[in-house]
Specification:
Layout: H1 2-7, E1 12-15, H2 22-52, H3 59-85, E2 92-94, H4 95-128, H5 133-136, H6 139-164, E3 174-175, H7 182-187, H8 194-228, H9 234-259, H10 265-289, H11 292-311
Helix pairs in contact: 2-3, 2-10, 2-11, 3-4, 3-10, 4-6, 4-8, 4-9, 6-8, 8-9, 9-10
């Protein structure tokens, strides 16, 4: 905290939000609170189902439960404040609150990025090496992948925030977004930030592009393998298509952000909304609606609680 106080003359940032109209903000408040409630319910349902249903105790669902946990955390970093800000005329966030928000957003975003790669590896082994699947994807490997997800998230955010937290902020403090967005906040520093902006582009943009390219290649190999064994691939194809949809939704906008950095604030706002509430909402929908085992587990969980309630 001392570092920020010494280098900065401002103590807070002003967030412009999505609209200055009170009526529109009240509409956004209703929409966001409903969507956020659905995010919490949907992702918690997946986590609880995987934890307590023995039918789902497999590597694929282990990763799915952790993906839902990352989505819960990623959405909860900013969305509750965004919702409360819709009821305020002056939307502010402290300097330290802004830094913590950006740190956590990139931490969970980076972790989820690697987790999607781990899920692709799991599907690759299941489809291309089915006879060795249980041997390769054992408990130790799953633990390593999970720890690597947290480590990648930490490295990803620290590599950017270590240089951002010490920036001097002494002039404009208005962020044209719904929460503290790293590229926009960097632009407000009263010092030369070209090298840091380039670091953000390389760190986030290039990493997203490389990961997406690798995932695209791996999923192409899996689709070719399934095509060659079409008689036994209907269930695997359904699962794989869900994975491809989630990967596209996650990496597509991220690549777009850093391919055209620092240009369009309206695009930044749209993508901020996309990552804070749309992606965490769509992931559980995609995986549950297209997964018969998950839907069956949710029904069993609901029936169990209904029987317990009737018995009491």
């Amino acid at each position: 905290m001392d570092i920020l106080n010494k280098n900065s003359n401002i103590s807070e940032f002003i967030l412009l939000g999505l609209s200055s109209s009170q009526e529109i903000q009240l509409s956004f408040f209703a929409i966001f609170i409903l969507v956020y409630g659905a995010i919490i319910a949907g992702n918690l349902l997946i986590v609880i189902s995987v934890m307590f249903d023995h039918h789902l105790h497999s590597p694929m669902y282990f990763f799915l439960a952790n993906l839902s946990f990352f989505d819960l955390c990623l959405s909860s970093v900013a969305t509750p404040k965004v919702i409360s800000d819709f009821l305020r005329k002056r939307k502010t966030i402290s300097l330290w609150g802004c830094m913590v928000q950006m740190f956590l957003m990139h931490f969970f975003g980076g972790g989820e990025m690697f987790l999607l790669i781990a899920m692709a590896i799991d599907r690759y082994v299941a489809i291309c090496k089915p006879l060795h699947y249980k041997t390769i994807m054992n408990h130790r490997v799953l633990t390593v992948f999970l720890l690597l997800s947290w480590a990648v998230g930490l490295i990803h955010t620290t590599s950017q925030m270590a240089f951002t937290v010490g920036l001097p902020f002494c002039g404009p403090n208005v962020v044209d977004s719904i929460f503290c967005d790293l590229p926009l906040v960097i632009k407000l520093a009263c010092t030369e930030t070209y090298n840091l902006e380039l670091l953000v582009i390389v760190d986030s943009g290039l990493l997203s592009l490389v990961c997406f390219t690798l995932l695209l290649i791996s999923y192409t190999i899996m689709l070719v393998t399934l095509w060659q064994h079409s008689s036994t691939s209907s269930k695997a194809l359904s699962t794989l298509s869900a994975h491809i949809t989630v990967v596209t939704l996650f990496f597509g906008p991220a690549i777009f952000i850093y391919a055209f950095p620092f240009n369009s604030y309206s695009v930044d706002k749209f993508l901020s909304v996309f990552y804070s509430i749309i992606t965490p909402l769509l992931n559980p929908i995609i995986y549950t609606l297209r997964n018969q085992e998950m839907k069956a587990a949710i029904k069993r969980l609901r029936s169990h609680h209904l029987c317990s309630w009737l018995a009491s």
